């Protein structure tokens, strides 16, 4: 049986039987007798192609292909008619994935359907090319941000190492002219600078190389708990995190630990916006097929101008609330790959709230 699936819709049982016999050697065929049954089938299963008669009682073919597009925009649609139907002609000229085939179809049927599927593949390849170009452009724009973000930790790593080197060269022993506390403070700053550089490189790699792991269902509350463990050493004794919301652990689909990475990024971004002191509220919820998580900080907030570019990898802010553009760009990218979205609401002097919404997985 072919992996290419087709839904055939016609109110004439004889036509359905004929189409099924002709196309079943090439396609995985499903037949239904009207527009209402077709919409029900489209909501339960994805098809590569919809082949529909134009004139049918109830929902006609032209209306069906329009509604089908809202259910699955990528599915190709072919109208089959034995009349000089003006609505069908206009629909097929709308350049939105509708083809028209006349009855009797003779030898044209299979070639038209295959041509429709080839058209879809061309559109997909073009979309992939555009996406790759956008990604390359984003990586290019990131260069300025990388230089900006690395300059600070590199400068104090270099300064502290030079101080230790001079002291060692002058005395033969680091501790002869510097106290142990001074040495420890310098080494702490060096380690912190190196950590920030390594973290920055990891985020750049994540932005440029999306994960290919198979998606799996995870509980959003469980993701938050894991993210809090990951950030424990950085937030401990400095940031109070209050997790609120439903006790229900709404399921979402995530490749690998991608959603956890979003939550980690949002927690660290919130802490950084408050200069690593204050309280963060994490709120969980679920509604209308969506799982929702928001992270609210008590930082200085963002201006309207900054809000417009906050998820841009090129974004380089000057305040503590705006210095982690790459992490936020990565988070927005991951959310979109998971079929969701990441938004922000903020007002100067009133903090910021980042909200992640992901499609909720129904529990069987």
Overview of this protein structure:
There is one protein chain. The protein is α/β, with parallel strands linked by helices and 364 residues long. The protein folds into three domains: 5-106, Rossmann fold, CATH 3.40.50.2300; 135-208; 215-359, Heat Shock Protein 90. It has twelve helices and twelve strands. The chain has helices spanning 13-23, 35-44, 61-71, 86-92, 108-171, 174-177, 180-208, 220-230, 232-235, 258-273, 304-307, 325-337, and strands at residues 5-9, 28-32, 49-53, 76-81, 98-102, 215-219, 239-245, 251-255, 278-287, 290-296, 341-346, 352-359. It has a five-stranded parallel sheet with strand order 2-1-3-4-5, sandwiched between helices. It has a five-stranded mixed sheet with strand order 7-9-10-12-11. A hairpin with a 2-residue loop joins β9 (278-287) and β10 (290-296). The protein is elongated and about 100 Å long. The two termini are 28 Å apart.
